[in-house]
Write a structure and sequence with these properties.
It holds the Pfam family PASTA. The protein is α+β, with helices and mostly antiparallel strands and about 725 residues long. Among the domains are: about 230-580, 3-Layer(aba) Sandwich (Beta-lactamase); about 590-700, 2-Layer Sandwich (Trypsin Inhibitor V, Chain A), CATH 3.30.10.20. Helix content is about 30%, strand content about 20%. The chain starts with a helix and ends in an 11-residue tail after the last helix.
């Protein structure tokens, strides 16, 4: 009986055990088939535990000028990390001594550093000035051989030319996490990189397993953007604007250089400007050239004149009574307080920039409706479509009869500088108005495939070829005629066609600002006048003028230097009749590569050039200017010799342009701070250049010792008073 009960219990126990084993086995089979427990993917969990994924960083695209010079790029930077924990072999054992030595190199207060180095932490960073430092600064710190001082490498955005086309380029955060303005922002979809990754399996000790398949997702680098900007022309703009900024301290300045035949923007700058590497200090975020609409002043007369000629109502010999002109219950007066110049021809009225002449053309010859048809045809109501962000349209006053009169001579209507440049292409380009553009092409750096290529685009033809030619002829007399307001803008060796402008500035209290210099002084010029290749627009807002200084002085300083150098860089020959008299003033550079150093040096020096030799080699291997380039007497040329260990030259007093010539010749990156002329450099003069790949250049502003000749009393009256486009209403 007892044995029977034991047998039954044993059988029940066996049965339960078999059921449990069967259930457990079936669970194993289920898990093996489904690879899932309570919603958790076991395969993914294993892969996560035994796999390692590393990011493969892509590289943000660069921005380059038309010749391939880098304007914005991604470079490595370094952040200093101090190890404080004594469990490590190398740590900061003497915070006071370490702080003292680092303070001198990093320009950080010693007490601040010491406070960081005595914190209760395993490791610390040393603040903003110890982040994103350059390779050269890293080398300086390394040379101190301090215990516990390490470096972390990070990519950062760098603008090698500093304050250079900054409103065009814009900037990104240093770590490139956010693009803030300019092309960096508007073209971010092209420039932005995409990171990749690599996944591989590892063992319990985090060692990579061999013969196991890897998963690799290649990173995609951002695309490179090439601009129409020519760095040589842009540098001429930046340098001359710096000079004017220092001497005249205007509220703002704008300069644009365009190819008259294509609409390509060769240079563009504003003041105030900024250094994108130091974006914390930006004062002006506005690209005035495309965003700021203001009354243009007499530069608008160019297009009113073109309309009158196209309609056949401009007779240069016809006379009118200058001085004042009644429009219903209001009076337009010429800019010399309404005195005028008596009865003069319409041609002289253009040359003298007579408001009355253009009011009569608008109301009596053209008629308001026709005038506004040409305003539309020249594109002043709409954005140009230039490939820069935040462009503004024009604001055209057209409600009353007086609006047509004032619009014709550039008052009460507001337009942007880039609209004026676009309209000027029709004058310079046989009546064809070109759409301005600044992005030349976009290239995939991996396979060099061009993903976008811009082409010149004729937007419209507001005037005929014959009209454009006639306008150029008349605008040339604005420069050459004795009574012309554009006389200060004449350039030796080149015929220039152009028009001055002196726009009034609306006051917050109503009316316009008054007082000497409280105007926007401008000039739009084209050269050579018979077949323009270059258009230059310059505007200077409220310069600080002496009583005997005309508003044209700061404008002409910029225009003449920029136009002259632009024509030179574009290899445009001087006007034929001037070539004989000026043949000794320009020097055409030959090819000196592979020539004997001494012979090349003597030849160029004897021609009147300032020759700088890099190295003591016997043969020239590179020169700063291409064969055929024309330089003026005293201009610098740099020759690189075949010396294996050349010495760093003394750059004191060099202009920024010459610094970049040195960069071009040697391939050494120039990291420039400030503006003006060189006052300091690292490495120092006379040190070895052999292993140098970057130089630190400090610039400081410097006034020219020689002041330009003052205009005579008669010229001042012509230039200053005769271009005051005041509009008086009774």
């Amino acid at each position: 009986m007892k044995s029977s009960r034991l047998t039954k219990r044993a059988l029940w126990f066996l049965f339960i055990l078999l059921v449990a084993v069967a259930a457990l086995f079936s669970r194993f089979i289920y898990i093996q088939a489904a690879k899932e427990v309570q919603g958790t993917d076991l395969k993914a969990l294993l892969e996560q535990r035994w796999s390692q994924t590393e990011t493969l960083e892509g590289k943000r695209g660069s921005i380059l000028d038309t010749n391939g010079e880098v304007l914005a790029e991604e470079i490595p930077s370094y952040t200093i990390v101090a190890v404080l924990d004594d469990r490590f072999d190398s740590y900061v054992s003497d915070p006071q001594a370490t702080a003292e030595e680092l303070s001198a190199v990093l320009d950080i207060n010693q007490e601040t550093l010491e406070a960081q180095l005595t914190r209760d932490a395993v490791q610390v960073e040393l603040g903003a000035r110890a982040k994103n430092i350059s390779y050269e600064k890293k080398q300086e710190v390394e040379a101190l051989e301090l215990d516990g001082i390490l470096f972390r490498e990070d990519p950062r955005r760098y603008y090698p030319k500093q304050t250079f086309a900054s409103h065009i380029l814009g900037y990104t955060e240093r770590d490139m996490s956010v693009a803030r303005m300019g092309l960096e922002s508007s073209l971010n979809d092209y420039l932005q990189e995409t990171d990749g990754y690599i996944t591989y399996q590892k063992d319990g000790r985090n060692r990579r397993l061999l013969n196991v398949d890897e998963v690799i997702e290649e990173p995609e680098n951002g695309q490179d953007v090439y601009l129409t900007i020519d760095s040589r022309i842009q540098m001429a703009i930046e340098q001359t604007m710096n000079q004017v900024d220092e001497e005249f301290e205007p509220e703002r300045m704008i300069a644009i250089v365009a190819n008259a035949n294509t609409g390509e923007i060769l240079g563009m700058s504003n003041r105030p400007s900024f250094n994108p590497n130091q974006y914390e200090n930006i004062e002006n975020y506005t690209n005035f050239a495309v965003t700021s609409s203001f009354e243009p002043g007499s530069t608008m007369k160019v297009f009113s004149l073109a309309a009158a000629i196209e309609e056949g109502v401009f007779n240069p010999e016809e006379t009118y009574q200058s001085g004042s002109y009644e429009v219903i219950d209001q009076t337009v007066r010429d800019h010399n307080q309404g005195r005028g110049w008596g009865e003069i021809s319409y041609l002289e009225g253009v040359q003298r920039s007579s408001n009355v002449a253009f009011s009569k053309l608008a109301l009596e010859k053209l008629g308001p409706e026709t005038l506004y048809d040409y305003i539309d045809a020249f594109g002043f109501r709409h954005v140009t479509g230039i490939d820069l962000p935040n462009e503004s349209p024009g604001l055209i006053a057209d409600q009353y009869k007086i609006d047509a009169a004032t619009t014709a001579f550039g008052q009460a209507t507001a337009i942007t500088p880039i609209q004026q440049v676009q309209a000027a292409t029709a004058i310079a380009n046989e009546g064809n108005m070109m759409t301005p553009y600044i992005v030349e092409r976009i290239v995939d750096p991996t396979n060099k495939e061009v993903v976008y290529q811009s082409e010149p685009e004729v937007k419209s033809q507001p005037i005929s070829e014959e009209t454009a030619e006639r306008v150029l002829e008349i605008l040339e007399t604005v420069i050459t005629a004795e009574e012309g307001t554009g006389r200060p803008f004449a350039i030796d060796g080149f015929d220039v066609a152009g028009k001055t402008g002196t726009a009034q500035i609306p006051s917050e209290e109503g009316g316009y600002l008054t007082g000497h210099g409280n105007n926007i002084f401008s000039f739009i010029g084209m050269a050579p006048a018979d077949d323009p290749e270059v258009i230059v627009y310059v505007a200077v807002d409220r310069p600080n003028l002496e009583v005997d200084e005309a508003g044209s002085e700061p404008v002409s300083m910029i225009f003449k230097q920029v136009m002259e150098q632009s024509l030179q860089y574009m290899n445009i020959a001087p006007t034929e009749e001037e070539e004989v008299s000026s043949v000794q003033e320009t020097i055409e550079i030959g090819n000196y590569e592979d020539k004997v150093t001494e012979e090349a040096y003597n030849d160029l020096s004897n021609q009147g050039l300032d020759v700088t030799l890099i190295g003591d080699g016997e043969t020239i291997i590179k020169q700063s200017h291409l064969e055929g380039t024309e330089l003026i007497h005293g201009e610098k040329i740099i020759l690189l010799t075949d010396d294996d260990d050349p010495l760093v030259p003394d750059l004191t007093g060099w202009s920024l342009r010459n610094v970049y010539l040195l960069e071009e010749v040697t391939g050494i990156d120039m990291e420039v701070e400030g503006s003006g002329f060189v006052k300091g450099q690292t490495p120092s003069p006379g040190s070895s250049m052999k292993d140098v790949n970057r130089m630190m250049i400090d610039l400081s502003s410097k006034k020219e010792s020689d002041q330009e000749e003052k205009t005579t009393e008669e010229d001042e009256e012509t230039v200053e008073s005769e271009d005051q486009d005041d509009f008086f209403m009774d």
